[in-house]
Amino acid sequence: MWTAASYDLRTGEWWRLCDLKDGVSYPGLASDGSYIYIFENRNLQVYHIETDTMRIYELAALDVENAGLFYWRNTLYIVGGCNRQGIYVAPHRDVIAIDVSQIDP
């Protein structure tokens, strides 16, 4: 299992937050102050900071790797990244918007 943790700069201590539902290596990350959004490998993991809970949403239609993730005015934006087909790699040209009100708390 993969773990999300918080590091206290003053004390040098680590605090376990939660277990990730899927491991990540180069995720896109964004936050709105209440949630931390983690996107990689067609999965959007959503960590609720106050309740210490994690949910995962499979976005099967989004075949993009190594994309950036940004939050602005209740919308997540998936930007850049690449598409792979066998040995071929092509840049992903679209910007994908996800209305966060569609995400169940």
From TrEMBL:
SUPFAM superfamilies assigned to the protein according to its UniProt record, in alphabetical order: Kelch motif
InterPro entries: Kelch-typ_b-propeller
Protein name as catalogued: Galactose oxidase, central domain protein
